[in-house]
Amino acid sequence: MIGVDAKFSDLVGVAEIAAGYPFRGSVDALPAGSTSVVQLRNVSFDHGVDWSGLVEVSLPRPARHSLLQVGDVILSTRGSNNFAHCLAEVHGDVVCSPHFFVIRISVGTLLPEFLAWQINQQPAQDYFAAGATGSHILNLKRQVVEDLPIAIPSLLEQQRIIDLDAAARTERSLLGRLIENRSTEMSGIAQQLLRPAFQRPTKRAS
Description:
Distance between the termini: 71 Å
Strand order of the largest sheet: 2-10-7-8
Structural class: alpha+beta
Radius of gyration: 23 Å
CATH topology of the domain at 14-148: Adenine-n6-DNA-methyltransferase TaqI, Chain A, domain 2
Order of helices and strands: EEEEEEEEEEHHHEH
Low-confidence stretches: none
Largest sheet: 4 strands, antiparallel
CATH class of the domain at 14-148: Alpha Beta
Number of helices: 4
Shape: globular
């Protein structure tokens, strides 16, 4: 059973928060190079970063301070789904687009995987929804992110929650594949059973 004892802070009190690399146009229009770019299209809630789908470009300005590191949490800032993802791996020199905030934990009492999990839960998502701006495409402002309330239980309890979340993700993946396999099976049965009926000459009612 997970305990409930925790300390509390706003996010800026436990982490450094920076915007992604300041591109001034389309990333895809840049010349090819050796720096990979994480864009919104490359990240999903269920699967994280699609590393094989990143474009590699030559940056117009140095980006040493913008390079992503293992343990960084990237947070999408556009739209109604402001989900976070903790980077368990980084391949070479990588930056993310300005449509992300990069959150780097600055204290030893908070695990980045736990922070990402906490940001993705309903209380934080409701907080973001209330603070987002924009009439058509919602945007998440830095001040809103900095002021996000954060719960900090013990490291042991944080790890327990991380492990439970990983187990839940595995279960959802297995269940999804089971449902997909069952749907394929039922579609095959339908094809085998019903297709002959559609191949017969049509009989019109008199």
